[in-house]
Structure formats: C-alpha cells, structure tokens
DNA sequence: ATAAAAATCGACACCGTGTAGAATTTGTGG
DNA sequence: CCACAAATTCTACACGGTGTCGATTTTTAT
C-alpha cells in the first residue's frame, strides 16, 4: 500500500522517482504531439526521459498506462476549473466562459486531448476518463438549457438529449479545429457557441439584420 | 456458393480471386464488429476467409489496406445515394431524408463506420476517404442552410461554418449512439435533426406548446 | 495439353512489448 | 564511516504480430 513514510517536516515526499515520473509524462506529451500514439514506442519515451525501457517499466506497467496517466493529469486540470463556474453565472455569460476555458485547454494540450479521443475505444481506462469528463460537460449544458426553458419536447429529458448532442458537437469540432490553428479553433468555438445559444432559444446579443 | 460457374457469354471476368477478395472484406467486417481493430490480427482475417496469412498478402499489402478497402466499399455506397437527393427536394423533406439514410447506413455498418473514424488519424488513406465523405455532407448541409437564408452573419461563409459544425455533431452523435442500440440511434437522430432545423431557422413542424 | 498467370503455402527476419533477475544507487541508522 | 534495505536502473530473454521470399500448386486461356 502507498503509505506515507515518516516524512520529516514536509519535504520528504519528493522522491527521485517523482521527478522521473513527471519527466516521463512530459516526454510522452511531446512525443504524442510529434509522432502520434502508435508511432510512439516505449523505447522512445524512455529515451526522451533519459532512462532505458526496463527502467520505465518500473514506473508504468505499459504504454497505455503512461498515456492514461497523462490524460488523467490533463483532464483533472479541467475538472477543478469546471467546479468553479458550475451553474452559478447568468446563462449567456456561463456559456461564454465555459467555451473560453475549453479553448484554452485545447490550445495548451491539443495533442493529448486528441489522443485521448482516438484511443478511448481501445483503452478502457481512458474511455472511462473521457466519458466522465463528457458527463460533466453534459450536465453543465443541461443546466443552462433547462434554465432557458427547454423541457418543451415530449420526453421529460429533452434538455439532456440536446445537451449530449451539443457536447459531442463541441468535442468533435474542437478535435478537428485544434489540428489546424488557434485562429481556426477560436472561430469554430464561436460557431459552436452560436448554435448552442440558438438551440437554447437565447438570441445572440449583437446580431445584425 | 451462389456463383455462376458457366464462363459463357459475359461472365469470364469473375476471377476466383474476386470472390476471395470479397470473402476477406466480409470476414474483416465481422471481425471488426467482433473484436475491434487492434485485437483483430491479419491471421484472424486470413483464417476467417479460409486461407493463410501468406495468401492474404497476395491480395492486400497490409492490414490497413484491407480495412481501407472495406471502408471504401462502405462509404461508396453512400456517395451514390447522396447524389440522388442532392439539393433537389424541399428543405425540411431533404433533411429528414438525409438523416434517415444515414441512420440506415449506421445501422447496417456501424462497426465499419466507427473503425473508420477511429483510425482516420493513423491511416492517412482512410482519413482522406472520410474527409471526402464529410465534405459531401457539409456541402449538402450548407445548401440547405443557405436556402433557409443563413448568410446573416458577418463572414461570407457563415453557412459553411455552421454546416461543418453540424456535420461533426451528427458524426459524433451517431458514433456513440450506434454503439448502444437502434432505438438510441433513432432518438439521437431526431435530436440532431431538431437542432439542425432550429439552426436553420426552420421551426419544427408538429411542435406542441 | 500445355504454358503462362493466378493463387497459395511455409519459413524466415524484424520489431515492439512485457518480464525476470542481477546490479547499482540512494537513504538511513548505528 | 559502514552496513543494510529500499528504490532505481540495467541487460537479456521470450513472445507475438508483421511483412517478405521463393517454392509450389491451382486456374485460366489457347
């Protein structure tokens, strides 16, 4: 069991291995951006981190585990920030804020996000991680839609169904746009926001004509 | 085997290899649904088709080529049917028809479609195939949006931008829903259609309340 | 019937993965 | 400083899947 050894004061927790582990994850992120998931070999990661394959297997049981840890580290970042602006703000403002935060995350970690999506179907752990993240988003979108009065449809959870679809729209759009350029991502985000607002029945603020 | 052995008249072009090739592709589709892309080995495909690995490599140069051919065969099916209802019909009817056709394709070949998406980033040929298909869709959606008068926005191609986003929305939603059940897919399709209509400014026909 | 083309097979080399055990470093208390 | 245990690293190996090659058998056309 990972127990806390009698840590002196506060700094006893910085084992050499912790640094290596971070180095491995960092290298992995670079390689992911560089050559992609399947082209990236365990040997590459080890070499980038300054150790041999054998040593890497001391920290992670497999290539998948490395990437899983990297994805976890990345989306965790998102979960915390998500809790902040949960369903507090005014709808239009909440939407804009959420989109902006998401754009920033994709700008900073696009390759990791894209890889997570790509391997979600083949690496169960990553799939679950991603699904949980999506559920968070869907819940947030649902909240906004309901506040805008969307129960209209026959089924009781019309808002949830729409939220799910809108979530996938954003995911997939960001997936593609983040591959092109930051400008593209920003523009795509605006388009998504527009459709989201329209679907919620909220007219875009400064709409000419 | 339902084959015409008499090479009389016109049927001389039915080489034995053509049958095998189809058998390989069929087996591949079954295995894709059964164990997924990476779990599926070239040996598995060969065995399912009743030949050895070595023989399979006479027809296809690699596992990727097999899957590429399978994807091509599947989406080709779509291109033809797409040309029929190009931009002819009345908007609302055109949308409904397109969605229904797409639902049917995903019901019949869900695993192939999902695999195509999954490996699009790692198998360039499949990526191109899929992008071309998406472009077809985007063009069709753009046509509908413009007919509904969507140039409103500042940029000249607001309709195209929205169409792209809507296309990805449908793709991703179908990807997930087709994994669950036919009912789910049908329901998801309805939700997508609703958002599409709303984005086009066309009120859904039988809307209560 | 026969020769070219088409199709099939078995064996081999290559590469990446994951494991095992030995060897080395690091931290700690006597 | 020394010894000992835990943490860390290395080298070597076995396994499985891929793709290639040359030999061999089956089809097909004449």
Features:
homodimer, 209 residues, mainly alpha, elongated, DNA-binding
Description:
2 copies of one chain form a homodimer. Chain A has 209 residues and is mostly helical. Helix content of chain A is 73%, strand content 0%. The first copy, chain A, has 8 helices and no strands. Chain A has helices at 16-35, 42-49, 53-59, 63-84, 91-119, 124-147, 158-180, 182-200. In chain A, α4 (63-84) packs parallel to α6 (124-147). Chain A starts with 15 loop residues before the first helix and ends in a 9-residue tail after the last helix. The interface between A and B is medium-sized, with 33 and 33 residues. Chain B binds a DNA duplex (30 and 30 nucleotides) through α1 and α3.
Shape of chain A: elongated
**C-alpha-based Rg of chain A, rounded:** 20 Å
What average pLDDT do the residues of chain A reach?
Answer: 88
Q: Which percent range describes the beta-strand content of chain A? A: under 5%
Low-confidence stretches of chain A: 1-12
Q: Which two chains share the most extensive interface?
A: A-B, 33 and 33 residues
The largest sheet of chain A, given as strand count, sense and whether it forms a barrel, is: none
Beta-strand segment tally of chain A: 0
- Assembly category: homodimer
Summarize the structure.
2 copies of one chain form a homodimer. Chain A has 209 residues and is mainly α.
Give the topology, please.
2 copies of one chain form a homodimer.
Chain A: H1 16-35, H2 42-49, H3 53-59, H4 63-84, H5 91-119, H6 124-147, H7 158-180, H8 182-200
Helix pairs in contact in A: 1-2, 1-4, 4-5, 4-6, 5-6, 5-7, 5-8, 6-7, 7-8
Chain B binds a DNA duplex (30 and 30 nucleotides) through residues 7, 12, 15-17, 20, 41-43, 51-55, 57-59, 61-63.
């Amino acid at each position: 069991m990972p127990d806390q050894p009698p840590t002196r004061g506060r700094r006893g927790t910085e084992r050499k291995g912790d640094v290596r582990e971070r180095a491995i994850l960092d290298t992995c992120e670079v390689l992911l951006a560089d050559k992609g998931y399947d082209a990236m070999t365990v040997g590459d990661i080890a070499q980038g981190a300054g150790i041999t394959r054998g040593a890497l297997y001391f920290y992670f049981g497999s290539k998948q585990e490395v990437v899983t840890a990297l994805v976890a580290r990345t989306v965790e970042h998102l979960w915390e920030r998500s809790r902040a602006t949960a369903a507090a703000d005014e709808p239009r403002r909440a939407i804009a804020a959420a989109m902006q935060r998401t754009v920033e995350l994709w700008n900073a970690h696009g390759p990791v996000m894209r890889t997570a999506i790509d391997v979600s179907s083949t690496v169960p752990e990553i799939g679950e991680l991603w699904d949980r993240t999506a559920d968070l988003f869907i819940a947030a979108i649902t909240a906004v839609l309901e506040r805008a009065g969307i129960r209209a449809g026959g089924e009781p959870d019309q808002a949830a169904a729409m939220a799910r679809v809108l979530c996938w729209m954003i995911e997939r759009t960001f997936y593609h746009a983040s591959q092109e350029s930051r400008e593209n991502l920003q523009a795509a985000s605006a388009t998504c926001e527009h459709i989201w607002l329209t679907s919620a029945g909220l007219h875009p603020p400064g709409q000419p004509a």
